[in-house]
Design brief:
By secondary structure, the chain is an alpha/beta fold. The chain has 16 helices and 15 strands. The strands form five sheets. The chain has a four-stranded parallel beta sheet with strand order 4-3-9-10, sandwiched between helices. A four-stranded antiparallel beta sheet has the order 5-6-7-8. The chain has a three-stranded mixed beta sheet with strand order 12-11-13.
Length: 477
């Protein structure tokens, strides 16, 4: 498998630190509100990476954190007059509900920053002891110029970065607000403020800096060198750049061998923003669309490409997913008949072609997790199964086709092959059954106009009907 490594800007063959194992760290959300649709993209993309590596036989240690101490959490807690822990715990639970709806599997470990404070204090002390950090009035700063490789991930020159901070640094110096040795130095530990949570430390009561949290949690739950560190491209600088600096300065080894970053998500070609009124939570979107449609939509583009979210594009994704689900349902129905037929010679010939579609799927996923091309391979597989099966096909043949489709779609891409049916009351079901019976009677009486009218009414109600040898079958659209 080849991965585009942000660090080298090249596609590189994936070679893990330990053969047969993969340690992946993905930056998780800051839990002060419901997760938004932009948060969902890395969750879905890198969940799929994990699934694919497991499909290829790797034992995956997948770690994704919750940032549960942050200015935004504190601000919301103060607004609601509650403890910040109450806010973070509330939205961790809500985040997990949304992840489950999107079929994002729980991580091997979901560390929380507030539960790892002692280890964070240890890393800060290590950095001070090695001359990479210093304390001024309770604030501990990382001495950025002490780390030679600063800027290697974002491909930024440290002198250019300094010039960009010069005016800001001058203003802070004049006002007496800045105590840093260098404008580029960043915070590892910040002193307590009134109304904020804090922990005891050698430098006074306070809390960790955001960048420090991920360095400590990834080291604890994976090790000094990660196989893959992933997240949104907005995290490349300064978050991931700072993680590299403090981790490699403290640990003395490469922090991560591969860096993967997903592209931005826009809403109707605009940056998502509350001020523009186009800010949507996953919960909002899932009231309008099946969460599986959202997952399918996110995987319909290669993860590094920018992705535009619009009703038109999501509807297009829904139609594409329906093609796959309809094909799967056809195979499932034939397999369920258990007709006892042996696989025919013609069916054996068709089964011999099946590995070609799997190979196309694997080749796409091996090419930097190209889920867009992988989905195209699944569409080809659906066309193949639709053309090669009918009501006379053997159940055993249909089952082999279905099992292959299930592995690629459900197991690897995380796309369920069955629709989530909305619960219907007995009265609603009775009305639908009555209308279908009325349509059947109209067809027998050769009143096809009335039969078509009833079908159209059912479709308006969101009910799709299908005439089969076993009778009329119906489902929610």
């Amino acid at each position: 498998m080849k991965i585009f490594n942000t660090l080298t800007r090249n596609k590189e063959e994936f070679v893990p630190v330990t053969p047969g194992k993969a340690g992946i760290y993905v930056c998780g959300p800051t839990v002060y509100d419901f997760i938004h649709i932009g948060n969902a993209r890395p969750m879905i993309v890198f969940d799929t990476l994990r699934r694919y590596l497991e499909y290829r036989g790797y034992e995956v240690n997948y770690v994704s954190n919750f940032t549960d101490v942050d200015d935004k959490i504190i601000r919301r807690a103060n607004e609601e007059h509650v403890d910040s822990l109450e806010i973070s715990e509330r939205f961790i639970k809500e985040c997990k509900k949304d992840m489950e709806a999107l079929n994002v599997r729980p991580a091997t470990t979901h560390p929380q920053a507030t539960k790892e404070i002692p280890d964070m204090i240890d890393m800060v002390q290590q950095l001070i002891d090695k001359g990479h950090a210093y304390c001024v009035n309770g604030t501990v700063y990382f001495r950025t110029r002490s780390f030679d490789g600063y800027g290697k991930l974002s491909h930024k020159n440290i002198d250019d970065l300094e010039s960009g901070h010069r005016d800001e640094a001058h203003q802070l110096k004049v006002s007496g607000e800045d105590e840093k040795e260098d404008a580029l130095d960043f915070v590892l530990w910040k002193p307590k403020k009134e109304g904020e949570p804090s922990w005891e430390s050698p430098w006074g009561d306070g809390r960790p800096g955001w960048h420090l949290e991920c360095s400590v949690m990834s080291r604890k739950y994976i090790g000094g060198t990660l196989d893959i560190h992933a997240g949104g491209e907005d995290l490349i600088f300064p978050h991931h750049e700072n993680e590299i600096a403090q981790s490699e300065a403290a640990n003395g080894v490469t922090f991560s061998n591969y860096w993967m970053h997903n592209g931005f998500l826009k809403i109707d070609n605009e940056k998502m923003s509350k001020s523009l009124g186009n800010f949507f939570t996953v919960r909002d979107i899932c009231e309008k669309y099946d969460p599986q449609v959202i997952r399918f939509f996110m995987l319909s583009a290669q993860y590094r490409s920018p992705l535009n979210f619009s009703d038109q594009l999501v509807e297009s994704a829904k139609n594409g997913l329906d093609r796959i689900l309809n094909g799967a349902k056809k195979l499932e129905d034939i397999a369920a008949k258990n007709n006892g037929k042996e696989i025919s010679e013609e069916e054996q010939k068709l089964l011999a072609e099946l590995p070609n579609y799997v190979a196309k799927f694997d080749a796409a996923m091996d090419d930097d997790l190209n889920t867009a091309d992988a989905i195209s391979a699944i569409f080809e597989l659906i066309r193949f199964t639709n053309a090669g099966t009918n009501e006379e096909s053997s159940s055993a043949f249909a089952k082999q086709l279905y099992d292959t489709l299930f592995t690629l779609s459900d197991t690897v891409l995380g796309i369920h092959l069955t629709r989530a049916e909305a619960e219907m009351s007995e009265d609603e079901t009775a009305v639908i059954e009555s209308m279908i019976a009325e349509r059947t009677a109209a067809k027998k009486a050769k009143d096809f106009a009335k039969a078509d009218e009833i079908r159209a009414k059912l479709l308006d109600m969101g009910i799709v009907i299908e005439d089969t040898r076993e009778g009329v079958k119906w489902r929610k659209a």
